[in-house]
Amino acid sequence: MEKVQPHISYSSKKSQVISLEKGKIPPQAVDLEEVVLGAMMIDKKGVDEIIDLINPDVFYKEAHQHIFAAIFQLFKTGQPIDLLTVASQLKKDGNLDVVGGEYYLIQLTQKVSSSAHIEFHARIILQKFIQRSLIKISNEIIEDSYDESTDVFDLLDTAESKLYEITQGNIKRSSETAQNLVIQAKKKIEEIANKKGLSGVPSGFEKLDKLTSGWQPSDLVIIAARPGMGKTALTLSMARNIAVSNNIPVAFFSLEMSSVQLITRLISSETGLSSEKLRTGQLAKHEWEQLNVKVKHLEKAPLFIDDTPSLSIFDLRAKARRLASQHGIKIIFVDYLQLMTAGGSQKGGGNREQEISTISRNLKALAKELDIPVIALSQLSRAVETRGGSKRPLLSDLRESGAIEQDADIVSFIYRPEYYKIDQWDDDEQAPTDGQAEFIVAKHRNGGLDEIRLKFIGHLGKFENLETFDTPVEFHSRMNSAANDDTFKPDNLPSANDAFGPDSLDDLPPEDDDHGVPF
């Protein structure tokens, strides 16, 4: 028995020795922290270089966190930053004794003579902080993974969300003061003024952009319509305007059409060649030239299309984070909401209405997380078809869930009267509805409502601004100048019905760009 006891005791001690992970010293660079803080107190240039690069949390030593917070407070209020002002601010905050008093601050300033290489040092401190954050998150993931009650898809989503925050250098902040938020708001207003009133991503439709000031960051926008109204055509037109005309990175998630089908529709829209011609390949010589020349702009556009079928909200969030991190996308399109699934995060089965509620709620959360607009298409119920009158959609027609209306910042509808054999608009002018559509903004959390008319070009599958020419004289003048040009193709001359349609001017000479003709 005496031989057995030591063996058991030894085995027990051995198992304790193996588990030493928690005894490791976390990654740190305290000496560089001292150098950076000292440089900031003796040289204002050092403060300007790194004040927006790091925050108090990145410092390993608690005393250094308090010192940087004091420096940051002085910077925000426009006060000078030196040994005396920092000591005064720490005293005001009640942290002077915590950091070691004025003697410790003097020691920090004596460690450096200038702010040279301060940015390089600050980035090393930031890297150590990221390493510590990864260790912390990894431990949390390990602990959660042993919890059998945790849904695996929720666990994956949480893990990826936390890792995304680290890659963006955007570890969750605490609440901010009104003073700080007012300063941010004033800066944003100044930026908007410089952009001539557009604070968001421009859709390319003038009246719509005037109403919304562009699609706003963190907004969830729902565009709903009955089948055949042109939901995909409208969002493709927007994606084209944003990516091709403005060179803004766009992510387009298509659950209905393949990526090749979508790009073919964009080629049709860009070149003015009908989808039928592109499908059959029966193009004349000049049409092949037209295709090769005009498709070059589309090839260079920062447009990313994902056609994964039955995409879950978890997969979409993971893909969106990756695109935001790697390509800096500024807007997301989802075509369309009812084809998505809630994935494993939908507990207990639930009904379809609850699933759609989960999806819309997560889309809004994604928009806020990435701070970009998310535009999701949605189907409308058949109640529109059974209703008499103009058959304009209403908010109550949103299919399967009232949560869509609640979560969305903007709810809009596409309405084409000619689809219902309605020849005239139901207004005082009673203008013909042929080739026209109405973009109805029925809910706008941060702005007004409106009904904006657009031009719909069916054979090209695209939408454009309705008013392209100010007067008939301007139109005929431009047609005459085009007819005298050697490159003008008689086959492309617009008919009387299309006299004021921008789709008929695809082959006008380049010098007409200054009149606002879309090419």
From TrEMBL:
Keywords from the named record: ATP-binding, DNA replication, DNA-binding, Helicase, Hydrolase, Isomerase, Nucleotide-binding, Primosome
Domain of life: Bacteria
Occurrences of domain SF4 helicase (ranges): 194-470
GO biological processes: DNA replication, synthesis of primer
EC number(s) per entry: 5.6.2.3
SMART domains: AAA
Catalytic activity: ATP + H2O = ADP + phosphate + H(+)
InterPro entries in the cross-refs: AAA+_ATPase, DNA_heli_DnaB-like_N_sf, DNA_helicase_DnaB, DNA_helicase_DnaB-like_C, DNA_helicase_DnaB-like_N, DNA_helicase_N/primase_C, P-loop_NTPase
Signal peptide range: none
MF terms (GO), sorted A to Z: 5'-3' DNA helicase activity; ATP binding; DNA binding; hydrolase activity
EC main group: isomerase
Region annotation Disordered: where it falls in the sequence: 482-519
NCBIfam families: DnaB (TIGR00665)
Protein family membership: Belongs to the helicase family. DnaB subfamily.
Protein name in the entry: Replicative DNA helicase
Lineage: Bacteria, Pseudomonadati, Bacteroidota, Flavobacteriia, Flavobacteriales
